[in-house]
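Dear U.,

Please find below the material for section 3 of the report. The protein was modelled together with fe (ii) ion; I have listed the sequence and SMILES used, followed by the predicted complex structure.
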Amino acid sequence: MSHKFQYLLRLGDNCLVLSQQLAAWCGHGPALEEDLALTNVALDLLGQARLWLSYAGEVEGRGRDEDALAFGRDGLDFRNLLLVEQPNGHYGNTVARQFLFDAWHRQLLAGLCESSDPRIAEIAQKAVKEVRYHVERSAGLMIALGNGTALSHARMQDAVNMLWPYTNEWFDSDAIDAQCASAGVAPAASSLAAAWRADVETVLGRAGLTTPTYTGHQRGGKLGVHSEHLGRLLTALQFMQRAYPGAQW
Amino acid sequence: MYAQLVETGAKAVKTLDQMEPQERAFQERINAGIKTEPKDWMPEAYRKTLVRQISQHAHSEYVGMLPEANWITRAPTLKRKAILLAKVQDEAGHALYLYSAVETLGVTRDQTYLDLLSGKAKYSSIFNYPTLTWADIGAIGWLVDGSAIVNQIPLCRCSYGPYARAMVRVCKEESFHQRQGFDIMQALCKGTPEQKAMAQDALNRWWWPSLAMHGPPDELSANSAQSMAWKIKQNSNDELRQRFIDQTAPQIEFLGLALPDADLKWNEARGHYDYGAIDWEEFFNVVNGKGPCNQERLAARNQAWEEGAWFREAMSAYAAKQEQSDMQGAT
Ligand SMILES: [Fe+2]
Ligand SMILES: [Fe+2]
């Protein structure tokens, strides 16, 4: 299968899985303002997922559209990072997961704006504008919650510690990353590490939180080796298409 | 409607001659179609009635997010998911404008909201019914948002300025919701036999609650008469219900679905559809806490509130620290 197709699935699946998680908060957030703001992020990511997956289907050339890819693959064929499939937990877990992802996502999209593939560059240019806002929001929440009360500080430090193991696989380079990087389609995976780390250290520092000193050891999402959480998420996501195969909605 | 059985405190509507000069001047402005604004003098009973009505309406928007949010993660296509997510988000926006409108009457959002959480304040009966299939999402948009529009268009002319203006904004979005709901129903009705059966089942379950949602006949109610005299309310519950039925019955036929009421028939002489008897006992049961989902809805709102307490406290503690350091920076 083409490297570009696989790479596009990675982009699309990150957005799809994370938007699915955020959408589950809708109506259950800690304040109406949060329901509005977090739903905006969920909608942006869902929009990006649709663009990436539609393009992936075109590149694949087997007639699969965004829905066929979203609803017709099992977990082994999902290519999202393990971080985005980690459970919502309490609101602080969701905020921390979002911040760690957003900071990386912004760097990635900035690189993709320069892609040699014009369609990828175009989607990235649209997405990066949204993601700049996402990172501003999630960084702001990290700083507020890190400094807010003793309880919120402790919860945010725990959240960062729990998620940290999942923050390194995105810098690993495999054949797909290497191929896309050498063709100028995408930035090299490892090239984003320094900027991400600097951003995260700055924000965690301002939040009064400690940046873990070890390197994350969890990996596998990009190759389809997931945590137990993904299967349950797909159960809800794909229920209708599985129960009524071939129906139009 | 989103505010049902609003208490006005009135036993009978006073005539102009029975009013003190200040109240009389107020009523004359209302009669002349002049809007009341937050800073204007108003009778205490008028203010209280508005607080009850607008807060019930706000709670309905907020609680109303739950039955639809129930299907966001399971929407059948990515496009439908995006539309539903945006729709439920709109309802959060409606709740926010309405809580702000209540604040203009001197009651804080937290005070208003705590009355919902304790079970003291009411919200629309309709949101105590469950969403069992995807077709329920279509039926809610079509029938529930459809009923809301019929009810809220006259509220755009309500005598209280902030409420009327909030309604103008809300109505635009509700009509999108109604069309999107109808579009879901259309797709189902053009689909497989299973999909069509799903659509019929949703119509059958949501039809009667949507009619009851407009509230019991109110011709004899002093509360309604008083609300009408104050131009908070402009039409009787039965008028609005009839308007909703007249606009919706042809849509049922257009979809090719069976009518959910054997007595639903066009009456040439009246120029309206006739319809069967509504089960008001069920309505009052639902209003009084004995609907299928009252407990879940209230429990979900309480759970979100309690689990979010640490977050809200942290955000205010941080804001207070920022303010303090800004002040120190300024000196
Ligand atoms: Fe609404
Ligand atoms: Fe609506």
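For the text of the report, you could mention the following: The first helix of chain B runs from residue 21 to 31.

Regards,
Y.
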